[in-house]
Amino acid sequence: MVAEISDKFAVAVIERSLPHFHRKTREVYRVQRGTLCVGRAGYGHVLAVGETIAIEPGEIHRGSAVGEPAWIEVVRVTAREIAAGGIVYTGQ
Question: pTM score, two decimals?
Answer without folding.
Answer: 0.78
